[in-house]
């Protein structure tokens, strides 16, 4: 038995068999093939291409029916690429003419393709490089007779152990019903961790060397609350954890009784509790938790694991599906927030990674830079607004100029739709995410142009404390109670109050029961979180007295010692 510690990012206990996900390709051998063996080498290459095709077809057949359409289109694109001469023929020429071994020939050709793709201006074509790399890697693994270890091999109910998982991977894992996952790297507010919470499965990140100590098939216990991974546990430990699982299940049943109760404080203040979703399929969990609506729909997940961005029509269908599943409830559609750790490909292929991607061309910056990406989305959201209470929200605003550009584009899109006699809500509420310190400090300047704010604490904390969300080496500095963070939250709430616009919060802090009372006291009235914690937060709201909490928050804001802030908030949360 061995126990490893990491950062627990999603509560719960899982007991099951390990599946170790290896991604690294071994070194590609390079040698010259004697003339007489050339045709044999060509045949070996062709067999590897055929094996790759069979594998892709098998995965395609096994995609669950409730998987998003992008899961299939991503495989179709890979199948098409296998037929492309650049991949299936060019290496054969190199084997015949240069006497390269098959792996070397394929590697040389993929380097040529990479250079071609890198020179392309078009963002999406550039991203195709990822798919090419994935297809090439698949053939390489088959040549090297290395088990192809992608998600298709993961059996239902297994615990995935990996060095790292990209959000793109995690969204695929979602359909394999994995029981838990553990990564060696990563931070608590990385999108991968957020996805784990939205899946409601236990997860640990930054469990250093986990993938080295664990072998596939070994029994594991994942204690998501304590961030503990137990490898090959003794029987007595397994029994103890089974008891704990039963306790958790019982508490969950108790909380479920609150599903239809209102989120109202003891002194009768109504609080809105909404859900964060990544894909239309997540709406079910939001409805089951009794959410008052969707406070954050992260539309970028619609753009992942696929070769082409979804067109206006596909986006329109996805958005209306969400709206129609929650009749009468608000649905806050956030415009594309790609970039940084949310690359369409999960950043695997090393496409033009800038030195500081989190500070780079991300979210609204990317949308304004490439309006061919933005315009169809604006049209789709506006069209969807005719079907329900849609709100549009812009991520990562840092300066007013960006907002003005967005407003112009929205106006243009509205005029186009009007001219085309397409229905939309001309009064669609427009919100801005306050997640860059600059925006929080100058929230009053944004307020007059917006209908609501939503505080994105994940990025606000990352940028305020200068800690990369995905860098486990600086996890220890992550602190939602840092006085600078609390001040920025308070400034934003006050600016909203002054301008009489609602202020919501949709970062992870909003769904963390430890902070609910403090946030209520600071004046927050709308919380959006992954559905898994909604009922726990509701229970706290129902036990809270807003008048008392306002005084509590005022006292906290006066404290001059961070340790005392922590102690007081913790004490209060035990009440
Ligand atoms: C945030 O930054 O708090 C947020 C909600 O957005 P995301 O986590 O998708 O960056
Ligand atoms: Mg954010």
From TrEMBL:
Protein name stated in the entry: Phosphoenolpyruvate-protein phosphotransferase
A Pfam cross-reference name: PEP-utilizers
Record-listed Mg(2+) binding positions: 435, 459
One Gene Ontology term from the biological process aspect of the record: phosphoenolpyruvate-dependent sugar phosphotransferase system
EC top class named in words: transferase
Family classification: Belongs to the PEP-utilizing enzyme family.
Keywords, sorted A to Z: Cytoplasm, Kinase, Magnesium, Metal-binding, Phosphotransferase system, Pyruvate, Sugar transport, Transferase, Transport
Residues binding phosphoenolpyruvate: 298, 334, 458-459, 469
Residues of the Phosphotransferase system enzyme I N-terminal domain: 5-127
Catalytic activity, EC: 2.7.3.9
């Amino acid at each position: 038995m061995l126990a490893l510690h990491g950062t627990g990012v999603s509560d719960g206990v899982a007991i099951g068999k390990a599946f170790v996900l290896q991604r690294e390709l071994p070194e590609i051998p390079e040698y010259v093939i004697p003339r007489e063996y050339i045709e044999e080498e060509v045949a070996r290459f062709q067999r590897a291409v055929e094996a790759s095709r069979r594998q892709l077809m098998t995965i395609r057949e096994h995609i669950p029916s409730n998987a998003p359409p992008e899961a299939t289109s991503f495989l179709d694109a890979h199948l098409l690429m296998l037929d492309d001469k650049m991949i299936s023929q060019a290496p054969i020429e190199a084997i015949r003419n240069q006497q390269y071994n098959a792996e070397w020939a394929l590697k040389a050709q993929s380097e040529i393709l990479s250079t071609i793709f890198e020179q392309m201006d078009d963002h999406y074509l550039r991203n195709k490089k990822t798919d090419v790399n994935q297809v090439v890697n698949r053939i390489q693994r088959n040549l090297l007779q290395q088990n192809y270890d992608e998600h298709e091999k993961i059996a239902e109910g297994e615990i995935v152990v990996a060095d790292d998982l990209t959000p793109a991977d995690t969204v695929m894992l979602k359909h394999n019903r994995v029981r838990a996952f553990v990564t060696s790297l990563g931070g608590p507010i990385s999108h991968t961790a957020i996805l784990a919470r939205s899946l409601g499965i236990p997860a640990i990140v930054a469990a250093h060397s986990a993938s080295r100590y664990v072998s596939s098939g070994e029994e594991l216990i994942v204690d998501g609350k304590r961030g503990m991974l137990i490898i090959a546990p003794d029987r007595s430990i397994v029994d103890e954890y089974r008891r704990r699982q039963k306790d958790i299940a019982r508490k969950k049943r108790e909380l479920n009784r609150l599903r239809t109760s209102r989120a109202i404080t003891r002194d009768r203040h109504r609080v809105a509790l909404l859900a964060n979703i990544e894909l239309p399929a997540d709406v079910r969990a939001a409805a089951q938790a009794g959410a008052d609506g969707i406070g954050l729909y992260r539309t970028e997940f619609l753009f992942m694991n696929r070769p082409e961005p979804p067109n206006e029509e596909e986006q329109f269908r996805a958005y209306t599906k969400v709206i129609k599943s929650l009749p009468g409830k608000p649905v806050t559609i956030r415009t594309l927030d790609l970039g940084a750790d949310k690359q369409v490909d999960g950043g695997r292929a090393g496409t033009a990674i800038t030195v500081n991607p989190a500070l780079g061309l991300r979210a609204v910056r990317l949308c304004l830079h490439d309006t061919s990406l933005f315009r169809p989305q604006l049209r789709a959201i506006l069209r969807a607004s005719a079907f329900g209470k849609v709100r549009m929200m812009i991520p990562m605003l840092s300066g007013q100029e960006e907002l003005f550009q967005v407003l112009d584009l929205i106006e243009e899109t509205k005029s186009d739709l009007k001219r085309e006699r397409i229905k939309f809500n001309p009064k669609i509420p427009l919100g801005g995410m306050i997640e860059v310190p600059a925006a929080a400090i100058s929230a009053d300047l944004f307020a007059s142009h917006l209908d609501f704010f939503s505080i994105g604490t994940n990025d606000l904390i990352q940028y305020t404390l200068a800690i990369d969300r995905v860098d486990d080496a600086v996890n220890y500095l992550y602190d939602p109670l840092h006085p600078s963070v609390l001040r920025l939250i308070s400034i934003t709430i006050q600016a909203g109050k002054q301008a009489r616009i609602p202020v919501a919060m949709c970062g992870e802090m909003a769904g963390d029961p430890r902070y609910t009372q403090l946030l209520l006291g600071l004046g927050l009235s709308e919380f959006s979180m992954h559905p898994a914690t909604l009922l726990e937060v509701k229970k706290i709201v129902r036990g809270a007295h807003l008048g008392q909490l306002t005084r509590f928050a005022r006292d906290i804001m006066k404290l001059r010692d961070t340790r005392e802030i922590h102690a007081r908030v913790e004490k209060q949360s035990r009440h």
